[in-house]
Amino acid sequence: VMDWGLAHAEARVGADETVHTLRTDERERTHQAAFSTLYGEVLGTPSFMPPEQARGAHDLVSPRADVYAVGAMLYHLLARRPPYARSAAEPSSGEVLEALLAGPPTPLGELAPDTPDELVAITEKAMARQIDARYASMLELADDLRAYLEGRV
């Protein structure tokens, strides 16, 4: 999982500089905040970052943060809206971060009640708020998705 806009900005910007890119300019003109990278102490795309990243605890960000991000993508695909979007209206980055830090997103089963229990469980484990409760690696997540696709419980 890679946020190319963020990678570009980190490579070019020092700690005290302001970043002006086409992407940030576009974010300011539109309401795509839930999908836009924030620059500063909290780095990442708000709807898809784990709580430890949202708190700016960079020392805790590990490969399990990527597991969380993929879980958030699954959530978005199944719920048809990103995590922490409390309504059909697109929230600002600040609103997403506030909701993320306050607690888990709306349970997937409530937003997409027809989603198979196995996919709900996989998504919830990938998006666990506690780092150690998530899949240890993308391989473990992939194994469970493969088992689901093959009809193995």
- Strand portion: under 5%
Task: Encode the helix/strand succession as letters.
Answer: HHHHHHHH
What is the global morphology?
flat
Q: Which structural category fits the helices and strands?
A: mainly alpha
What do the pLDDT scores average to?
78
By DSSP, the count of extended strands is 0
Query: For the report, how would you describe the main beta sheet?
Result: none
Roughly how many Å apart are the termini?
27 Å
Helicity, in percent? 40-55%
How many whole angstroms does the radius of gyration measure?
Answer: 16 Å
Count of helical stretches: 8
Low-confidence runs: 4-22
Please explain how this structure is put together.
- This protein has 153 residues and is an all-alpha fold.
- 48% of the residues lie in helices and 0% in strands.
- It is built from eight helices and no strands.
- It has helices at residues 4-12, 22-29, 51-54, 63-79, 93-102, 108-111, 117-126, 138-149.
- Helix 4 (63-79) packs antiparallel against helix 7.
- It is flat, with a radius of gyration of 16 Å.
- The two termini are 27 Å apart.
- Mean pLDDT is 78; it is low at 4-22.
